[in-house]
Inverse folding.
C-alpha cells in the first residue's frame, strides 16, 4: 500500500478561479509526477520532478504549474481555471532506483463550471 | 518518446475464464514493466511488474509474459472473477533519469457471472 495522499478528492469551482491540488507522500520518494486522466481514458504525464527544486513539463502540454520545495510535497496550481481543465488529476511517486515502479494517489476530480 | 500499443480496448470474460491483455512498445527499455489495475473513481494500483531479463512472472492468478525480442508483453488473469472487473493499463519505462512511464490506452475488463 502506497502512502501518497491527494486533496481535495473532489472540487467544483467557477471559471477564472485559482486552485491548488495538494499531493504528499510519506515514503521519501525522490521522483514525483502529475498525470491527467479523463474518465476511462489513458493517463497523460503533465509534470514531473527529479527532486527538490527540480520540475519539468511532461508529455502533455498543461496550463498548470508545479513546485517542489520539500521532498514529500508536490502541489499543482491552476492560476485561472477553465471548463477545459475539467478532469481527474493523479499524483504519483517513485523511489529513483531501478526496479521500483510508480505509485499513485487516489486522484483529485476537478470540475470547472 | 516511448510508444505503447495496448489491446484489446475492452474485454468480456465469463467467470472462471482466462483474460488476456497485450501490450507492444517501440523503443528498447531496461527497467521494470508494470501492469496497473484501476477501479472507477480510484487511482491506478500497481498489480504486477516484471524485470526485463525475465520471460514470465506469476503472482497468484496474475501472470506477465514478456517477449523482449518482439517488444511485447501480456497480462494473463486466470480463473477471472467479477471482482477483477476494472480497467487495466500496461506501462513501459522510458530511458533517462526521470524514470518516467508511458502508459497504454487501457483495457476495460468485464467479468460476467
Amino acid at each position: 500500500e502506497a502512502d501518497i495522499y491527494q486533496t481535495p478528492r473532489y472540487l467544483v469551482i467557477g471559471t477564472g478561479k485559482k486552485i491548488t491540488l495538494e499531493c504528499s507522500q510519506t515514503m521519501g520518494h525522490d521522483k514525483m509526477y502529475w498525470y491527467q486522466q479523463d474518465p476511462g481514458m489513458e493517463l497523460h504525464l503533465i509534470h514531473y520532478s527529479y527532486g527538490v527544486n527540480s520540475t519539468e513539463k511532461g508529455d502533455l502540454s498543461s496550463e498548470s504549474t508545479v513546485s517542489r520545495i520539500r521532498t514529500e510535497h508536490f502541489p499543482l496550481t491552476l492560476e485561472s481555471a477553465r471548463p477545459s481543465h475539467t478532469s481527474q488529476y493523479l499524483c504519483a511517486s517513485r523511489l529513483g532506483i531501478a526496479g521500483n515502479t510508480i505509485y499513485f494517489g487516489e486522484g483529485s476530480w476537478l470540475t470547472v463550471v | 518518446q516511448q510508444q505503447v500499443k495496448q489491446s484489446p480496448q475492452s474485454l468480456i470474460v465469463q467467470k472462471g475464464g482466462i483474460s488476456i491483455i497485450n501490450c507492444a512498445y517501440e523503443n528498447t527499455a531496461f527497467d521494470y514493466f508494470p501492469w496497473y489495475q484501476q477501479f472507477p473513481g480510484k487511482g491506478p494500483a500497481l498489480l504486477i511488474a516484471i524485470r526485463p531479463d525475465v520471460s514470465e512472472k506469476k503472482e497468484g492468478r496474475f501472470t506477465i509474459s514478456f517477449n523482449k525480442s518482439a517488444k511485447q508483453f501480456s497480462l494473463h488473469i486466470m480463473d477471472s472473477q467479477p471482482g477483477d472487473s476494472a480497467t487495466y493499463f500496461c506501462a513501459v519505462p522510458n530511458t533517462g533519469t526521470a524514470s518516467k512511464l508511458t502508459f497504454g490506452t487501457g483495457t476495460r475488463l468485464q467479468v460476467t457471472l
